[in-house]
Design goal:
The complex is a heterodimer of chains A (277) and B (421). Chain A is mostly helical and 277 residues long. Chain A has eleven helices and no strands. In chain A, helix 7 packs antiparallel against helix 8. The relative contact order of chain A is 0.14. The C terminus of chain A is likely disordered. In chain B, strands 6-7-8-3-9-10 form a six-stranded mixed sheet, sandwiched between helices. Chain B has a five-stranded antiparallel sheet with strand order 13-12-11-14-21. A four-stranded antiparallel sheet of chain B has the order 2-1-4-5, with helices on one face. In chain B, helix 5 links the parallel strand 7 and strand 8. The chains are: A mainly alpha (277), B alpha+beta (421).
Chain lengths: 277, 421
């Protein structure tokens, strides 16, 4: 690579990074501006102020934001866990066994995944109110499963297919039951796949707005994205942009941490050395 | 330790194609049995039926006197080395070897002792803490063997264990496996398509073709008394030459002159218009280098040499010959079945490495007539096979074998290398 080419790569890289990170920087900067500073017509706040954070964490908006944060964490973690476990079994069966209707399951999963959420929300709203799931945690966990399960099954079955059949057969010959072979050999090998799937599933649930706003009404189960939409300014003449920006920064943090913690796990290099190579 | 008996084993796949067809085979306790054949002959399928990874369509699989058809692999107490080793990449070498013991919930002290013993045998000591990904091919292969020997299995099964190694390492591991098996005296079934492995490792070799057993015999018997064209062509490297010939009054007229058969051998066949004469490369010699006393056992002929290959310790010459279309087609068919694609009808002859025979020139060769075989071109049967001489060879091999096992067991050698009481 010549020096010139290298330069081009660096410039292109910098442009892309700025393009991708600018909105994030903007939100962060916005969240640090005080209410009167928001329309100061410059990128950086004139004075760094934590008042927006104070407002959502302990001020007026805390009553709206903090329960929403708790709901979001709880609902998304539970939905992710359930969908990972279910998807693991389903994907294992799909990757390993030959049974009738295998194609049907996969294509149904795909169909569910691409089905527009908004067309389901209204019937679900009515149904949930009838059977008492409206504005409850399970009332959100169940629809989130329908969002996360298909993609989880697809990614995991791709991972399971990568694992050579011989690994399990070797375990069985070594004296393992099918369950032991699954637990001691397949699951550890599929761990990077499971982590990747868990992260994807968590994001999908975490980012959902349509179900969150339609199927909840109180802080008993309202998740963060829905709560953000309900923020209001200190008075009706003030826009709540500052607090919204601060809340957006806060809900981004767990996602960033998650990716940083698991990024090494996500690299799917673990099966190296299993076979001749 | 146990014997393995297969009775009329059949494996049919969904489409009704029999991958293994009516195979009956008895493997004695402590015997080293080789299953050999070209790809697709059903040898791996047969092995996988022994271990239980493949269902048996019909027939009985009896291990140590018990029918195991319906038992899961883990209940059969066999250990297996896979072609691609199938090591557990998330576990260290130590834990890989210890895996079967951990499943048995063996006490920690026993695990440590047995793994150490196995790693002593296979010289894996300094690698015990490493992950399989960081090992070389040969080391991975040894780990796979360690996992097999650490447990007191009734039999070892090997599925082409050396086919992923380079030639040099393959030779080393081959002797290693032979030594290990002799030392432990455990019944072993070894699948390979490599006839060198088959010849060097096996007490007996089972040659399979399209799911049907062709011949089960000691390597020597296979080599000297093959039962048909297929076995004759498969065993031996370079392969046996097949020449078309006309048989009359015990004399064969071949493209390389006349060969007179031993009257004893020729008598039963009678006169035939077309037979195939099987002559191993080493039955030929540069006529100028043959001692006078030997000359009388064969005949000489002149032929033009196409190519010579000098290998230092030996030398091969390729001599093209003409054959009727019928024979050419049949030989092509045969070579395709044996996984080699012979393009022309030529004889490969082995001559002394000091021979000055040159490419492109005509030269005089001598041919030893004593050991040639005559095959029926239609059925492929060996018409000159002497079953008694063959059985004798196998019996001798078995005697040697019994002696070795006796020795190994009286020495009390186990995996752990100390005397058992």
């Amino acid at each position: 690579m010549t020096a010139r080419e290298k330069w081009l790569w660096v410039v292109a890289g910098v442009v892309i990074v700025i393009y991708a990170l600018f909105p994030v920087g903007w939100i962060v900067s916005l969240s640090l501006k005080s209410a009167s500073d928001i329309s100061n017509q410059q990128f950086l706040p004139s004075v760094v102020s934590w008042e927006n954070y104070a407002q959502i964490l302990s001020g007026d908006a805390a009553g709206l934001f903090l329960p929403a944060l708790r709901n979001s964490f709880g609902i998304c973690l539970i939905a992710t866990a359930i969908s990972c476990v279910l998807a693991m079994f389903a994907a294992y069966a799909i990757a390993r066994l030959d049974f009738r209707g295998k194609k049907l399951i996969l294509s149904t999963a795909l169909a569910v995944a691409i089905f527009p959420v908004i067309s389901i929300v209204t019937p679900l709203f009515n149904l949930w109110r009838e059977i008492g799931l409206y504005d409850t945690w399970p009332g959100l966990i169940i629809p989130y499963l329908s969002l996360t399960l298909p993609i989880s099954i697809w990614t995991l079955s791709a991972f399971f297919r990568e694992i050579p059949w011989e690994m399990e057969q070797a375990a069985q010959v070594d004296g393992a039951t099918t369950w032991q072979a699954f637990r001691k050999v397949i699951v550890p090998l599929a761990a990077p796949g499971v982590f990747t799937t868990a992260i994807i599933a968590f994001f999908i649930a975490w980012n959902d707005f349509a179900y969150g706003i339609s199927l909840t009404s109180t802080s008993a189960s309202r998740p963060v994205p829905a709560a953000l939409g309900l923020f209001s300014g200190a008075s009706q003449f003030e826009s709540p942009n500052g607090p919204i920006a601060a809340a957006a920064v806060i809900v981004t943090i767990p996602v960033v941490i998650l990716v940083l913690v698991f990024q090494r796990r996500i690299v799917a290099g673990l099966t190296n050395g299993a076979v001749k190579g | 330790m146990a014997s393995v008996e297969m009775r009329n084993i059949v494996k049919k796949y969904g489409d009704g194609f029999p991958a293994v067809n009516d195979v009956s085979l008895d493997i004695a306790d402590g015997e080293f049995m080789i299953l050999v054949g070209p790809s697709g002959c059903g040898k791996s399928t047969l092995l996988r039926m022994v271990v239980g990874l493949e269902d048996i369509t019909s027939g009985d699989m009896v291990i140590g006197g018990k029918r195991v058809n319906d038992k899961a692999p883990r209940e059969r107490n066999l250990s297996m080395v896979f072609q691609n080793y199938a090591l557990y990449p998330h576990l260290s070498v130590f834990e890989n070897i210890a895996f079967p013991l951990r499943l048995q919930k063996a006490p920690e002290e026993e695990v440590q002792r047995k793994v150490k013993a196995a790693s002593d045998v296979l010289e894996l000591h300094e690698h015990l803490d490493r992950k399989p990904a960081n090992l070389s091919g040969g080391q991975r292969q040894r780990v796979a063997m360690g996992r097999a020997i650490v447990r007191d299995a009734d039999a070892f099964l090997f599925d082409e264990p050396l086919s992923n190694l380079d030639a040099k390492l393959r030779g080393q591991m081959r002797t290693e496996i032979a030594r290990l098996q002799r030392r432990l005296g455990i019944t072993t079934i070894y699948v390979t398509h490599d006839q060198t492995e088959a010849m060097t490792l096996g007490d007996r070799v089972c040659v399979l073709r399209k799911g049907v057993i062709q011949q089960v015999a000691s390597p020597r018997e296979l080599y000297e008394q093959p039962v048909n064209l297929f076995v004759a062509g498969f065993i031996g490297s370079p392969p046996m030459n097949f020449l078309p010939a006309k048989l009359k009054n015990g004399t064969l007229s071949t493209p390389f002159g006349e060969i007179t058969l031993d009257p004893k051998r020729g008598a039963d066949i009678g006169d035939r218009d077309l037979v195939l004469v099987g002559i191993r490369p080493e039955f030929f010699e540069d006529a100028s280098l043959v001692e006078e006393s030997k000359r009388g056992h064969g005949s000489t002929f002149r032929a033009k040499v196409d190519v010579t290959e000098w290998l230092g310790d030996s030398q091969y010459a390729y001599i093209p010959y003409d054959a009727p279309d019928e024979v050419v087609n049949q030989l092509k068919e045969l070579s395709r079945e044996l996984d080699s694609d012979q393009l022309r009808t030529q004889a490969i002859v082995s001559i002394d490495s000091t021979s000055r025979i040159r490419e492109g020139r005509e030269a005089e060769f001598w041919l030893d007539a004593r050991k040639v075989h005559v095959f029926d071109p239609a059925t492929g049967d060996n018409l000159t096979r002497d079953p008694e001489a063959g059985a004798e060879l196998t019996r001798l091999a078995e005697e040697d074998r019994a002696e070795q096992i006796e020795e190994a067991r009286s020495g009390g050698l186990t995996v752990e290398g100390h005397t058992t009481s």
